[in-house]
């Protein structure tokens, strides 16, 4: 029986504890001894602010303000700083008259791990120093008299990383750390922590656990080491933000395990990584894609090189494999790597794309097998040399319940290095030079070209490339629009899904960067032929005989248009900026050979929508406003012939602005009634009923043509006029009934064919007739009329309307007056008393005459 197990030993211990309880030693005087004891164990200078002795539940010391300084070669900042530390004493050492620390437990310490400019880590230096200290194991035998290496542990620790004097944003928090000496020549350590970044608020990075053992060696590079690490339950988006400083938009659960054995000069590494539920952050329809691989190799931590690398990722009976070696992985890296794909189903590639790219059809399926082998070699400062080929054989895609079938056949794959790309361009090979115009100067994977056939139609050429910075794919050839829309749907390309059919000669590309998940950009041209398109809000289809569509980075232009709407032929161009929705403003310059008011009604007037019998009572959905009402556009319009009922305007030109259903026609010029119209019109199509407002001038119009339009030659001569007119309504009759406006006119060298003044010489001739006309509720009222005829000068006033006929008074300077009543076709003139006219005029003077516009024509 040992001394401590005997009754005598127990009595001695009890007496010693009683003495320590009754007569506590001056522990503050022990600070230096405790500091020296810890410093001897860890091989670093140690300072303590305050020491308090503790008896229960275990004898030891509460240390406040513990600081373990670092080697000056790594900086002046302490290696460990802890405010609260408990140092448990080894009881047997007190019996022998020594003070020995058994366990050193720190709460929420701050630990700095530093790599200096020479590439050495302070932690490695500490381990190398401890390997030279002849300490006994942490759990030493009772007979062992050498000081034992204490059991060092910390809870809630924060571990910071520094490169030189710069502290990195990467850190480990809530860390539980332990370090001990397992046996005479081996040590052990464990760590459990959460990785974080100090510049981001990351909460879902998973848990990192490590367990390590190593043995004593005269040279740290020869130290036998065994390390196991797991990183579990991390969220992919937060891990990418942790490692790169930016959330790349990917989601999924990350699990990583790694085992390392050997010496720093030859570490055998085995690892497994898996990402479960991989998808892009904004994709809701998922296919539960799991990405996983296993790797093994030999790593030399001294030269920072990797040998015998072999990584494999099984994929549905096939596999991806990466093998080779890599020299230094830091400055001017060198490597010799081979990536191969062996019978990888194309369906698995599209499963990955479905989770990585939006708008791919949910029922998209793929057939085919991928086989390829690519080789990458770099030797120090020389550029990488990339070679290799592959084939995706028998590729067929299907979506929309099998209605959309895309047969691609065999797709060649070629890995092109930067040097090979540029050398081919300099060689003067025209075909290759032309291809390189669309390919990047950096190393890339060339895909195709291959023939793409949609639903057994004639094939078109497709191909492209993928590089580290981005991608680009092209389509060239003749394609039917319906098949083109199907192809766009299958590949999730941005497209205007119009109801259209016809043909197009394509030379377009889809490109974009990987960074930021930017949407793809389409560029190129399309020659449209025999296209029939239906546009919501337009009652008749648009027949496009030919047009050229140009897709530029900043806009879309449709040029060289030759089209028809009904009997109207159009030509010109239309353009719009890109990425402007919903406030896109179209620019146009269009010409039409013939437009009539009947055409406009046929094109735009609402028609009862055809609907199933079971929706006969729910008509609200068919009363939605036309999308043309929300159109915003600006441009110029040319119309060779514009017909309003029987009236014909020719050579019409105007500037048109459309904004939310409001149409403004400015600088409207036209040849009308053998004269000229100049003015401005505004149409508010968003209002119900539609409202119109026009103002402008009529110059040298033929009044005889006005009579012809009215089927009665009641007037002849020419006239000028200025008008300001407002009206509203859904029919021509409503427009006349609701009109309100002013007309200032001057008539010259004509006649009023049905007006005969008693005593005159036949129909009244007109040398000059000027006045102001006011239109209100379908009634024309003449003010300040002055008519110069061969038999005198007349003052004319009165009214005219379709319902009540005419009622005018002609007053001549020789005090004769006549009242003209009836209709324009059959007017009746009768003499009247001048005194009655004067009385009537005085009575009307109490009212207010129409305001005369400032630009009234000369009389």
Descriptive account of the structure:
- The chain is mainly β and 859 residues long.
- It is built from 13 helices and 42 strands.
- It has a 42-stranded mixed β-sheet that branches.
- Mean pLDDT is 81; it is low at 19-24, 422-436, 613-623 and 845-859.
Taking all Cα atoms into account, the compactness measure Rg is: 47 Å
Name the poorly predicted regions.
Answer: 19-24, 422-436, 613-623, 845-859
Number of helices: 13
Helix content: 10-25%
Dominant shape = elongated
Structure, briefly:
The protein is mainly beta.
Task: Identify the notable features of this structure and list them briefly.
mainly beta, disordered C terminus, 14% helix, elongated, 859 residues, 42-stranded mixed beta sheet, 13 helices
Layout of strands and helices, then pairs:
Layout lengths: L6 H16 L8 H12 L3 E2 L2 E5 L5 E9 L11 E10 L1 H5 L5 E7 L2 E6 L6 H10 L19 E13 L2 E18 L2 E12 L9 E9 L9 E11 H9 L5 E14 L2 E15 L8 E12 L4 E11 L2 E9 L8 E11 H11 L8 E14 L6 E15 L4 E13 L1 H9 L3 H8 L6 E11 L5 E8 L2 E11 H11 L7 E15 L7 E14 L7 E11 L2 E11 L2 E10 L8 E11 H8 L27 E13 L2 E13 L2 E11 L2 E10 L6 E12 H7 L5 E14 L3 H6 L2 E13 L11 E13 L2 E11 L2 E10 L3 E8 L4 E6 L4 E5 L2 H12 L14
């Amino acid at each position: 029986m040992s001394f401590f197990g005997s009754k005598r030993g127990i009595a001695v211990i009890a007496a010693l504890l009683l003495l320590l309880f009754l007569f506590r030693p001056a522990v503050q005087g022990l600070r230096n001894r405790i500091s020296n004891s810890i410093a001897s164990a860890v091989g670093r200078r140690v300072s303590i602010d305050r020491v308090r002795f503790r008896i229960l539940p275990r004898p030891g010391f509460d240390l406040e303000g513990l600081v373990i300084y670092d080697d000056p070669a790594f900086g002046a900042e302490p290696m460990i700083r802890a405010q609260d530390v408990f140092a448990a004493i080894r009881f047997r050492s007190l019996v022998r008259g020594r003070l020995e620390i058994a366990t050193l437990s720190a709460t929420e310490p701050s630990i700095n791990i530093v790599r200096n400019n020479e590439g050495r880590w302070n932690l490695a230096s500490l381990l190398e120093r401890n390997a030279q200290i002849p300490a006994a194991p942490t759990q030493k035998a009772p007979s062992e008299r050498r000081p034992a290496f204490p059991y060092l542990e910390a809870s809630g620790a924060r571990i910071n990383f520094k490169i030189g004097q710069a502290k990195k944003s990467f850190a480990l928090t809530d860390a539980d750390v332990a370090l001990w000496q397992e046996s005479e020549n081996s040590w052990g350590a464990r760590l459990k922590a959460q990785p974080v970044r100090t510049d981001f608020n990351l909460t879902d990075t998973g848990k990192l656990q490590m367990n390590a053992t190593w043995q004593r060696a005269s040279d740290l590079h020869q130290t036998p080491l065994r390390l196991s690490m797991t990183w579990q339950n991390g969220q992919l988006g937060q891990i990418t933000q942790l490692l790169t400083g930016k959330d790349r938009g990917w989601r999924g659960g990350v699990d990583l395990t790694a085992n390392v054995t050997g010496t720093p000069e030859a570490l055998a590494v085995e690892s497994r990584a898996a990402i479960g539920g991989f998808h892009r952050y904004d994709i809701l329809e998922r296919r539960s894609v799991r990405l996983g691989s296993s790797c093994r190799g030999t790593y030399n931590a001294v030269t920072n090189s990797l040998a015998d690398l072999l990584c494999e990722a099984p994929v549905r009976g096939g596999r991806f494999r990466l093998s080779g070696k890599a020299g230094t992985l830091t400055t001017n890296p060198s490597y010799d790597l081979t990536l191969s794909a062996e019978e990888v189903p194309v369906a698995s590639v599209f499963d990955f794309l479905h989770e990585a790219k939006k708008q791919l059809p949910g029922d998209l399926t793929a057939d085919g097998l991928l086989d390829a082998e690519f080789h990458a070699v770099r030797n120090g400062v020389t550029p990488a040399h990339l070679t290799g080929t592959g084939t995706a054989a028998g590729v067929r895609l299907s979506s929309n319940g099998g209605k959309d079938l895309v047969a691609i056949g065999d797709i060649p794959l070629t890995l092109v290095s930067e040097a090979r790309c540029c050398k081919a361009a300099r060689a003067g090979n025209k075909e290759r030079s032309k291809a390189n115009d669309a390919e990047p100067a950096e190393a890339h994977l060339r895909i195709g070209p291959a023939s793409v056939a949609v639903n057994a139609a004639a094939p078109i050429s497709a191909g492209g490339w993928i590089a580290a910075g981005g991608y680009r794919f092209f389509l060239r050839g003749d394609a039917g629009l319906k098949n083109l829309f199907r192809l766009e749907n299958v590949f999730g390309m941005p497209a205007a899904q119009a109801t259209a059919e016809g043909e197009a000669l394509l030379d377009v590309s889809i490109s974009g960067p990987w960074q930021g998940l930017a949407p793809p950009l389409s560029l190129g041209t399309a020659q449209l032929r025999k296209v029939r398109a239906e546009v919501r809000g337009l009652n008749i289809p648009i027949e496009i005989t030919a047009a050229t569509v140009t897709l530029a980075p900043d806009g879309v232009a449709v040029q060289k248009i030759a089209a028809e709407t009904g009997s109207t032929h159009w030509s010109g161009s239309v353009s719009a900026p890109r990425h402007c929705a919903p406030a896109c403003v179209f620019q146009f310059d269009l010409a039409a050979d013939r437009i009539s008011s009947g055409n406009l009604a046929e094109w735009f007037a609402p028609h009862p929508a055809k609907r199933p019998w079971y929706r006969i009572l729910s008509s609200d959905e068919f009363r939605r406003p036309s999308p043309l009402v929300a159109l915003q556009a600006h441009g110029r319009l040319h119309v060779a012939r514009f017909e309003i009922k029987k009236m014909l305007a020719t050579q019409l030109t105007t500037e048109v602005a459309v904004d939310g259903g409001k149409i403004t026609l400015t600088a409207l010029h036209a040849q009308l009634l053998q004269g000229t119209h100049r003015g401005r019109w505004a149409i508010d199509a968003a209002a119900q009923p539609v409202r119109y407002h026009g103002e402008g001038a009529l110059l040298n119009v033929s009044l005889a043509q006005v009579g012809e339009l009215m089927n009665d030659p009641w007037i002849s001569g020419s006239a000028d006029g200025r008008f300001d007119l407002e009206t509203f309504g859904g029919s021509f009759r409503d427009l006349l009934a609701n009109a309100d406006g002013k007309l200032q006119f001057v008539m010259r060298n004509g006649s009023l064919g049905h007006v005969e003044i008693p005593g005159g010489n036949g129909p009244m001739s007109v040398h000059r007739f000027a006045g102001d006309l006011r239109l209100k509720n379908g009634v024309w009222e003449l003010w300040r009329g002055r008519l110069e005829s061969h038999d005198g000068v007349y003052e004319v006033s009165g009214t005219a309307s379709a319902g009540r006929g005419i009622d005018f008074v002609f007053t001549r300077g020789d005090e004769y007056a006549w009242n003209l009543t009836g209709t324009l076709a059959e007017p009746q003139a009768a003499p009247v008393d001048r005194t009655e006219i004067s009385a009537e005029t005085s009575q009307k003077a109490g009212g207010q005459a129409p305001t005369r516009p400032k630009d009234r024509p000369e009389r």
